[in-house]
Prior knowledge:
The chain is of the alpha/beta class and 173 residues long. It has five helices and six strands, in the order ββααββαβαβα.
Amino acid sequence: xxxxxxxxxxxxxxxxAIVNAANSKLLGGGGVDGAIHRAAGKQLLAECRRLRExxxxxxxxxxxxxxxxxxDLPARWVIHTVGPVYAKTKDKSDILASCYRxxxxxxxxxxxxSVAFPAISAGIYGWPMDSATRIAVDTVLAADTQVGxxxxxxxxxxxxxxxxxALRTSRDA
Length: 173
Ligand code: AR6
């Protein structure tokens, strides 16, 4: 698998699919979720609403993933996943790892060969960037998937440095 780190706005990335760090309600929000809904256009929210009325009446649980079309985005699909809210007193690393594994499983179902990820849970959900990026890189490298290219899309220099360090140390290992 080819792994790239490309700092910037994930809504501009031309991979087959981009991953959204959504919430369980799946009806938009702040952060990368808001940016993706703005860039994809109203049809994205309409498809999310249909999912909530049919297969996802109770919402999307943390650690799981579901696909929609990408509409006005350069990416053909959006894979929505829900990260765990960070808590010092409870280790939710397995749920965060599951976001990456499940997103790649959904990508395989779609036939997506390239997938871009933001740093899931590392914004509003409060996960420390170093830990979030390490879980991201380790989980993607260990995944059993047909996806050939994964692009991590840090939104800040700090996040870029954290992804680079996680990739460097995992490849040394
Ligand atoms: N491209 C790439 N990364 C981005 C972009 C962008 N356009 N915008 C923000 N980021 P967050 P979470 C980074 O808060 O922590 C929403 O309200 C951001 O700097 O978007 O999983 C949802 O609806 C951070 O490093 O997601 C949920 O309620 C990373 O993306 C909740 O926030 C993730 O930050 C999810 O919180």
